[in-house]
Specification:
CATH topology of the largest domain: FAD/NAD(P)-binding domain
Keywords: FAD, Flavoprotein, Oxidoreductase
Oligomer: single chain
Order of helices and strands: EHEEEHEEHEEHEEHEHEHHHHH
Strand order of the largest sheet: 7-2-1-10-9-8
Number of helices: 11
Number of domains: 3
Shape: globular
Organism: Tuber melanosporum (strain Mel28) (Perigord black truffle)
Number of strands: 12
GO molecular function, one term: oxidoreductase activity
Strand content: 15-25%
Helix content: 25-40%
Bound molecules: flavin-adenine dinucleotide
Protein name: (Perigord truffle) hypothetical protein
InterPro entries: FAD/NAD-bd_sf (IPR036188), FMO-like (IPR050346)
Distance between the termini: 61 Å
C-alpha cells in the first residue's frame, strides 16, 4: 500500500493545531503540512458543532486571540467577553487567510479524519513507500478512513476536552437520557423543547456546568446541580463588571503585574515584590485586604446567601 508523504502532520485543528501550523509554515513556507481533524468543523472547543447557545469566552478580547491578528469586537460582546461563535469565525478566518506557498492553513485541514494509530519507525528503511524512504520519514499515521500517511514530524494538538469523561453511575432500573456538555450544542435543544424532560441534574462544577445550569433554568426546567465534595467546590468565578473605570473586566485587573505579584502562584519569580507581598507583615496585610475585598464583592454579586438553595453553591473557602 502506498502512503501520502508530508513533512509535518498535526493531529487536531483546534487553536493549538492552527497556531502550530502557522508557526511552522512561517519558517518553512514550502513544507508539505496537513492537519488531521476528527470533527467536521475546525476550532476544537470552538468548533461550529460544539458552540452552544449562550457560550461565551472566559477570556476577554486581547487574551483570546493570536497576537498577530487582533480579534474584532462584536456588538454581542459582554464587557469584552465574546460569544463563542465569534471565536469560531475568528479561527476559521485566521486559517483561511494565512496562506503559504499558495495554500492556506484551512486548505491543509482534513476534516472528518480521525487519527487511530501512530507508529514511529525505527529507521528510514522501515518506511512504507519509496517517497518516505527517500526523505527518511519516521512516523506512520493511520486514520479511521483507512488512509496511511507518513511524515517526518508529528505534532499532537488534540486538547484535553475532546474525549468526554462520563463517570460510572449505578442507576439501577432508572436510565435517564444522559448527555455530556461536549454534545450540548447538538442535543440540548432536544432536551429543552421536550415537555417530558422536567428535571435536569447537572454534574460538575466548571464552565460548561455553569452554562448548562443557566441554559436549563432559562428553559423552565427544574435543575439540581451536583458538585463533588472533594474538589473545593465549583471553579472560581469572577465578576465581569464592577471594576475600576480604567479596566474593562476582572481579567484585565487580574492580569496586571501588581495583581500577579499578589498571587501566591509558585510560578512567579521570587523577586523583591513577591518577598514584600508574601513575606512581610505590611505586604501580607495589603495582599489579604485586596483578595478579601474582591472575594466579598464577588460572593455578594453571586448572591450565594440569597436563598437556601443558592447557599449550596457558595465556594468552599480556605
Ligand atoms: C466549554 C469550554 C469553554 C472554554 N473557554 C475557554 C476560554 O474562554 N478561554 C480559554 O483560553 N480557554 C477556554 N477553554 C479551553 C479550550 O480548551 C482552549 O481554549 C482551546 O480550545 C484548547 O485548544 P487545543 O487546540 O489545545 O484543543 P481543542 O480546542 O480541544 O482542539 C483539539 C482538536 O483535536 C481534535 N482531535 C482529538 N483527537 C483527535 C484524533 N484522534 N484525530 C483527529 N483529531 C483529533 C479534536 O476534535 C479537536 O478539534 C474552553 C474549553 C471548553 C470546553
Amino acid at each position: 500500500m502506498t502512503s501520502t508523504y508530508f513533512d509535518v502532520i498535526i493531529v487536531g485543528a483546534g487553536p493549538f493545531g492552527i497556531i502550530a501550523a502557522k508557526t511552522y509554515l512561517e519558517l518553512n513556507p514550502t513544507a508539505t503540512l496537513a492537519l488531521l481533524e476528527t470533527d467536521t468543523s475546525l476550532g476544537g472547543a470552538w468548533s461550529k458543532n460544539r458552540v452552544y447557545p449562550g457560550m461565551y469566552s472566559q477570556s476577554p478580547l486581547g487574551m483570546i486571540e493570536f497576537s498577530d491578528v487582533p480579534m474584532k469586537p462584536t456588538p454581542q460582546h459582554y464587557k469584552n467577553y465574546v460569544p463563542a461563535h465569534h471565536v469560531h469565525e475568528y479561527l476559521a478566518l485566521y486559517a483561511a487567510t494565512h496562506i503559504y506557498d499558495g495554500k492556506s492553513i484551512k486548505d491543509r485541514i482534513r476534516l472528518d479524519t480521525r487519527v487511530v494509530s501512530v507508529q514511529k519507525l525505527r529507521s528510514p528503511r522501515d518506511g512504507t513507500g519509496s517517497e518516505s524512504r527517500r526523505r527518511g520519514s519516521t512516523w506512520v499515521v493511520g486514520t479511521d478512513c483507512g488512509q496511511t500517511m507518513v511524515c517526518s514530524k508529528l505534532m499532537i494538538a488534540t486538547g484535553i476536552t475532546s474525549r468526554p469523561y462520563i463517570p460510572f453511575f449505578n442507576t439501577l432500573d432508572f436510565t435517564p437520557p444522559m448527555l455530556h456538555t461536549k454534545d450540548l450544542a447538538r442535543l440540548a435543544p432536544m432536551f429543552m423543547e421536550s415537555e417530558g424532560v422536567r428535571n435536569v441534574i447537572v454534574i460538575g462544577g466548571s464552565k460548561s456546568a455553569f452554562d448548562a445550569v443557566h441554559m436549563f433554568i432559562s428553559a423552565g426546567k427544574r435543575v439540581d446541580w451536583i458538585i463533588r465534595d472533594k474538589g473545593s467546590g465549583h471553579a472560581g468565578v469572577g465578576l465581569a463588571e464592577r471594576t475600576p473605570v480604567y479596566y474593562k473586566n476582572s481579567h484585565q485587573i487580574l492580569s496586571t503585574r501588581l495583581m500577579s505579584k499578589m498571587s501566591p502562584c509558585i510560578f512567579q519569580p521570587h523577586d523583591h515584590w513577591m518577598h514584600f507581598f508574601h513575606q512581610t507583615r505590611v505586604g501580607r496585610w495589603a495582599t489579604d485586604m485586596v483578595w478579601n475585598t474582591m472575594q466579598f464583592a464577588w460572593l455578594k454579586a453571586a448572591r450565594c446567601g440569597h436563598s437556601g438553595d443558592a447557599s449550596g453553591a457558595r465556594p468552599q473557602l480556605p
